[in-house]
Amino acid sequence: MTASLTVSTISADQHRAFIAGRSSASFLQMPSWGAVKTEWRSESVGWFTDNGAIAGVGLVLYRQLPRVRRYLAYLPEGPVIDWDGDDLSRWLDPMVEHLRGKGAFGVRMGPPVVTRRWGAATIKKAIADDALRTLDEVPADANDTAGLAVVDALASLGWREQATEGGFSAGQPKYNFHLPVGDRDEDAVLRGMNQLWRRNIKKATKSGVEVRLGGRDELADFHRIYAETAERDHFTPRPLAYFEKMYDALTDEDPQRMRLYLAEHEGDLVASTTLVQVGAHAWYSYGASTTEKREVRGSNAIQWQMIRDAMASGASVYDLRGITDTLDPSDPHVGLIQFKVGTGGEAVAYAGEWDLPISKVLYTAFDQYMKRRRS
């Protein structure tokens, strides 16, 4: 008989120590992320075996219902548990009971398990096929049986998958783009890129683009062109204070956790990005570029430097984060996929985000409240 598990609050040090013993975990499941999302209350939780050993951890963010001391408990890209086990209820039931005791009316989580993968060549071919409009319509190059088993298990346990629009839910993206780098050298990664990427990297070098690491005091320079990018690409930018808070929280946990990159041409800032790394997983988290001097290809140069630095830091995956599921050439979002496909990586589908109502009445009220806010 499988031993039971219990869940209780743990310290940030216990949380970090457990993840340090693993190859990686999402940075959204690190204690520092709770210090970034200050509009939520945060808690580190641990799964304990009968002998008191920690078998799993999670960062829980609590969002309060208006005028009621009840909360949605959210574990973004988590928790960090054994998702390959035969009995998920052994892990999830004690978690739900703990969160119920903390006043949660519902639980939302994003299991960090991949269900399907599409290679760059498959995606490129699919975009050129007029009969295909979404990634879901394309047969995957690989199906992950363990990830698909998690999806089936969650449905059987009463969890509800959150609807997505274009591959994005209200939380984290279901579709991401990964560049595997763990068993390759720089030349192999460069050869795996398409001709346009290689040409643009060479052009940036020939044009004199220089990429360097920046300090906290240069976040304002990043934010200046980030705001320009937001206006050009029609999205709402985060304030500078958010990036300062993110930088402070993540680098306080580990000086190399978050890095700021600046690409300059003849003294002008032409692109800037942020990279986050936990163990063997590195994420390109935010990026910006100027409208001026786009011809010097600062965006390609800065990505190539981040990839090289991630490899040098022991990363096995360079994660270019979310993509939409559109393959329609007339959709402006397809340009994002094409840019990332050029790296020669792969699109991956995660299990998505799942909810479990604890109080159906309060959960329904919260769901309606959030729909009104988004409308």
UniProtKB/TrEMBL annotation:
It comes from the Bacteria. PROSITE patterns: FEMABX (PS51191). InterPro entries: Acyl_CoA_acyltransferase, FEMABX, PG_Glycine_Bridge_Synth. GO terms for biological process: cell wall organization; peptidoglycan biosynthetic process; regulation of cell shape. SUPFAM superfamilies: Acyl-CoA N-acyltransferases (Nat). Pfam families: FemAB. Keywords: Acyltransferase, Cell shape, Cell wall biogenesis/degradation, Peptidoglycan synthesis, Transferase. One of its GO terms (molecular function) is aminoacyltransferase activity. Belongs to the FemABX family. This is Aminoacyltransferase.
